[in-house]
Amino acid sequence: MSASTAPPQEEAPAQAPGQAPAPTAAPTAVPTTAQTPAQTPGQAPAPAPERRRGADTRALTQVLFAELKELQPGTPEHNRVRGALIEANLPLVRYAAARFRSRNEPMEDVVQVGTIGLINAIDRFDPDRGVQFPTFAMPTVVGEIKRYFRDNVRTVHVPRRLHELWVQVNSATEDLTTAFGRTPTTAEIAERLRITEDEVLSCIEAGRSYHATSLEAAQEGDGLPGLLDRLGYEDPALDGVEHRDLVRHLLVQLPEREQRILLLRYYSNLTQSQISAELGVSQMHVSRLLARSFQRLRSANRIEA
């Protein structure tokens, strides 16, 4: 009886694990729960900080604008909230300034100009219109930066209409290049924008006026001289400019007949015989008049005196 009683007691534990799977599953569930947190950090790190930071900035901006609306302009509290709005939205200025990195202008200057646009946007923004502040401020910031490049950075000042037309020419050039698979001609760009070819050429020339090239700067490539060494030549006639001006000043001091004799002799290259026939006087008289004219010119010449 004791032997028969023992087996039932040994079989009972064998049935217990089958009837109670929960305790057995509990230990296996622990690694599963440990894996779930491992997947959550892997899915969230990239977008979460960016979205969280942007959402925090937008929420803070809304709160500050609501507070700013209740304050009197010019008060210390108003200035404090306004300064907090500027500081909170500086990343927006840096984002806009990054679009102009190719202009070879110090980014600190571009950010400073963009901050002026941000301040103007803050002063004009009305939160009751239902527009997000970044949407309202971005055109103002970018416009201020573009105005800075147009008015201050260009070596040659370009009229505003020509500058705006230059932007359209660039856009049309890109569109036509994509459509044709090649660089469009001036006539094609002019037809696209319904302007003349001269205006297109003027716009292209205006687009090159951001910076002046030094005449002494070396050109691209080895062994190429600077522009100064390749432009123009020494004109020997320049040496006679001062003398011609002096002669013109001296000639007007002579009598009219002597002026005419000198012009016929040295500008028309006539001989004394030809001059005498032209004026109806003897050749000897022409010679005497020439000698007297030379004497007067030498005495009136300040350089020889």
Features of this protein?
elongated; 0% strand; 15 helices; Arc Repressor Mutant, subunit A; Four Helix Bundle (Hemerythrin (Met), subunit A); mainly alpha; disordered N terminus; transcription regulation; single chain; 305 residues
Tell me the span between the first and last alpha carbons. 159 Å
- The helicity comes to over 70%
Radius of gyration: 45 Å
Overall pLDDT score: 77
Element string (H = helix, E = strand) = HHHHHHHHHHHHHHH
Envelope shape: elongated
CATH architecture of the domain at 50-153: Up-down Bundle
Please, how many helices? 15
Which regions have little confidence, pLDDT < 50, spanning 5+ residues? 1-46
Q: What is the number of beta strands?
A: 0
Pfam families: Sigma70_r2, Sigma70_r3, Sigma70_r4
InterPro entries: RNA_pol_sigma-70_dom, RNA_pol_sigma-B/F/G, RNA_pol_sigma70, RNA_pol_sigma70_r2, RNA_pol_sigma70_r3, RNA_pol_sigma70_r4, RNA_pol_sigma_r2, RNA_pol_sigma_r3/r4-like
Domain RNA polymerase sigma-70: 109-122
GO molecular function: DNA binding; sigma factor activity
Briefly characterize the structure.
GO terms for molecular function: DNA binding; sigma factor activity. This protein has helices spanning 2-19, 21-43, 47-69, 76-88, 90-97, 107-124, 133-153, 160-180, 186-193, 197-206, 227-230, 241-251, 256-266, 272-279, 283-300.
Structure report:
With 305 residues, the protein is mostly helical. Among the domains are: 50-153, Four Helix Bundle (Hemerythrin (Met), subunit A), CATH 1.20.120; 160-206, Winged helix-like DNA-binding domain superfamily/Winged helix DNA-binding domain (Arc Repressor Mutant, subunit A, Orthogonal Bundle), CATH 1.10.10.10; 251-300, Arc Repressor Mutant, subunit A (Orthogonal Bundle). Helix content is 70%, strand content 0%. The chain has helices spanning 2-19, 21-43, 47-69, 76-88, 90-97, 107-124, 133-153, 160-180, 186-193, 197-206, 227-230, 241-251, 256-266, 272-279, 283-300. The longest helix has 23 residues, at 21-43.
